[in-house]
Amino acid sequence: MIIIKIILTTIDNNDLNAKVDKQFGRAPFFALLETDNLEISFLDNSAANASSGAGVMAAQQVVDEDPAAVIAGNFGPKAFSVLKAAGIKMYSYSGDTVRDAVKLYQNDSLKELLDPTNGAHAGLK
Predict the structure, then answer these.
(1) Which of 35, 64, 74, 77 is deepest in the core (most CB within 10 A)?
(2) What count of other Cβ atoms lies within 10 Å of the Cβ of residue 72?
(3) Which of 32, 73, 71, 78 lies closest to 55, judged by CA?
(4) CA-CA distance, 78 to 90, in Å (whole number)?
């Protein structure tokens, strides 16, 4: 089986039961997951509490991990541009846990985003 690394934004770092965060740039954690064996680890999002530029900083942190895809609730225009330029696919997920999101991803049931889902500075509202 091919190993595919994906990243999901999460509210907590509670294994596959972690709750997916609806925001990208200000999510507290990134779950790094290998889809072949569901091996999971977590990174603190260093941009979560940034006064400005959280989307771009979070996107660069994700790019540095070199995933095939990112799953989050919403992506702003600047983060979207950074991730798209790096060739990383983005998927919107409005459900509950990492486990549920990964199942949908593996079954090709998540729609790839072609445009940002939020306007600029949406994470501050």
Answers:
(1) 74
(2) 29
(3) 78
(4) 13
